[in-house]
Amino acid sequence: MTEHTACTTDGHGANAHPAWLAHHFHSARQQYESGKLGIWIFLLTEVLFFSGLFCAYAVYRANHPAVFVDGHHLLSTPLGAINTIVLIFSSLTMAWAVRCTQVDQRKAAAVLLAVTLLCAGTFLVVKGFEYHHKWKHGLVPAHEFAPDEQYLESRIGAHEDGSTLGRDPAQRVRNVRTFLGIYFGMTGLHALHVVAGIIAIVWVLRRTVRGDFNRQYFGPVDFVGLYWHLVDLIWIYLFPLLYLIH
Amino acid sequence: MAAIPDSAPAARPAAADNYLTHARGLMSWIFTLDHKRIGVMFLALIWVAMALGVLFALILRAELADPGETIVSKNVYNRVFTLHGAVMIFLFIIPSIPSSLGNFVLPIMLGAKDVAFPRLNLASLHLYVFGMLFFLFTLFVGGLDTGWTFYTPYSTETNTWVIPAVLGAFILGFSSIFTGINFIATTHMMRPPGMSWFKMPLFVWSLYATAIIQVLATPVLAITLLLLAVERLVGVGIFDPDKGGDPVLFQHFFWFYSHPAVYIMILPAMGIISEVISVFSRKHIFGFKFIAFSSVAIALIGFLVWGHHMFTSGQSPLASTIFSLLTFFVAIPSGIKVFNWLATMYKGVVHLTTPMCFALLFLILFGIGGLTGLFLGAVAANVHVHDTAFVVAHFHYVMFGSAGIAFIGGIYYWWPKITGRMYNDLVGRICAVVVLIAFNMTYFPLFIMGVRGMPRRYHDYERLLEKNPEFFDLNVIASVGGFLLAGTLLVLAANLLFSLVRGRPAPANPWGAATMEWQCASPPPHDNFASPPPVTDPYDFGNLTYDETTGGYVSAP
Amino acid sequence: MSDSTTTPQTETHDGDHGWIHIVPARVLLAVFAALILLTLVTVAVTWVDLGDLNLWIAMFIATVKASLVALYFMHLRYDKSFCTIVFLASLVFVFLFIGVVLLDTLQYQPDIQQWQRDQLP
Questions:
Q1: ipTM of the complex
Q2: Which CATH number fits domain B35-555: 1.20.210.10, 1.20.272.10, 1.10.3110.10, 3.40.640.10?
Q3: CATH architecture for residues A38-243
């Protein structure tokens, strides 16, 4: 970091390197396109990272479809839908913030980034409610798994979803555990990525306010935005897979 | 063509300002953004990891030299082979060539000033150190005994230290991913004008193919290890049949990464061999496009064969059949490469320098290692030799005998460029011959024992001696070979370290190679090049003549 | 490769601005509206019982939404095609992974179910 700041007398000919153009790149375009390729490859790794959990989901749902039908009654579809809309809105504000940065509308960009953060926070709060609710009814699949039987009966037993497994209480507990393991695994990992996204957005917000970006240098905002859109993308699949099972 | 002389022309001091002298102080190293310094630090750490892995190996071989319990109990033995495998794979072989030699050489081969993302590169180094610390911690608190493959259900139940080890591997995985991202972006975006993909050195191609695997496969390992850690901490039940889980699922997850991982190990090694064989045969590489495309083919087909580690796991016969067939396909591009290398040497003028000796060693040992992979790919044969010493021999021939040997050859090839010093070539060549003998002494007996039923991961084989008395002698030969091999590695390292003190200063191009890194001084300046040198065919040596005064090659005007 | 809906740069630079593409605000809003609409549709579809088809319809709608996000919010429509290749490649490998593992586990489910039946008294 210390070696590559403002090398204005670098001997690069007529165009000395502005502070935001790294020493090893010869043009703003090369820097931007390299960064873009880099972040897309990183997003590729994130997709593969989540793929393990999607694979576990596919395997268990294929082998025990009734478990998933039963299990989804433990989730609140309205809350899931709210979170979906919140994230989609945050993707809009994020993409718009990138646009504003590109046209030097610094204040608007900062406001939009702040709104994105607000949405991210809202998502986590809603998630927090959902998780707390599960914990209250003993539905967190840990070493000691002791779900509230009455609660299970009220949510699952009440539905004639065609799952004979749901009839036997002991079997129901075992199956619910599998479903919840996958639910917490997938949404938990996703939530961790939301937290990481928040940190990244705070960082670009700070740099935006500081005036780091300009019409030729907006890469970091763009790339954090791409990451954020991926977080949204993953939720777009998680929502129907977990909340909309019938 | 003149031979490479040992006698030194008038000694000259190293270039006034090079990357080593550019900035001083510990902080200038720990927080450097210079890919060359990062590569050198990786090299030093990787040597430490290798030494640790070799130490564990020597304990294993000492134990196996005698049938009964010799120097360690069975519980300690289990921990030693687990850590030997984990350290060698995650801390040594996987990062070895890309993070050390790759980091140093790749940008210079492209005439660039640095990799695309220098800060990501530094992060990769720091993550490597953290991963190493996690492994050292695991070692100090008593280790783990699951085998480096961490199979469930044992890994979820054992009370040894699984979590720090898997967290260490998780962190090391990100170190690897960051290197992969960097190399792909650098190769795409930072080639000089005029260097098309087909004018790019084959070492770069091999690092590119490796990087593809690093970014696609490593994340799956990451989620696998995370799930294992969560399973141990929280007991979710994903791999536990009692809780509705499936232990074979762990194996699918694990091998989806770990099979492509072996191609992460071998592809950069093959890249080095392409460079070395061409330069020291003084002949253009034969079949450039074939070698280039075969690197990518190995990377991609390598993702289709992971089930060949699972033939006896309970995997369905249909899946086993498909995986077996695909395993035979993945051998083809490797075979293409070997033929191209041999064709390169044919009618060339071979200079038996140390790097070339190691390249030849590679051809022999890779031939054996690769071919024995085919036996393992056949389901029927595999059932017989799975989990025996046969498998151990196969993967040591390819991981150590091929990738490891190419790594040593690569270090010896680029050492003058990295350090600005020439080493004693005769010592290197003698070591290569000793390695040939010692390596085969150590590992060939394992093929024989494996076919006859010697299991792997067993610390005691007394009961087997009744039916197979030859196991006694074969194990002794293997153990003697192992110690001889370790001693030779020590000499090889000492030879290089000694050159730092007493080696003659290296010219820019001691070997007469035509790739760009040999156009800058040895060691290179901080910026590599003020502007990239003109792009030429990287394997055309016609322009290079030997200059007696410098002891190196120069481009003819 | 890049759509020339850029706003003209007025400062003195060394020429080439074809690489900077700014998505028009109306495109962003239109995509947003479409995404919300599709979210409502996907929830509504669950009120109709179509058996197994429900899952595939949900996945189809999710994929349409994902494509909109990728093409417009994430710019793939206007970027170099290599980025799209990178993204699609990740999906290819995910499908390879999930596909083969599913193939395997489904193959031996009958054996497991047989064993479970055999355990019953």
A1: 0.92
A2: 1.20.210.10
A3: Up-down Bundle (1.20)
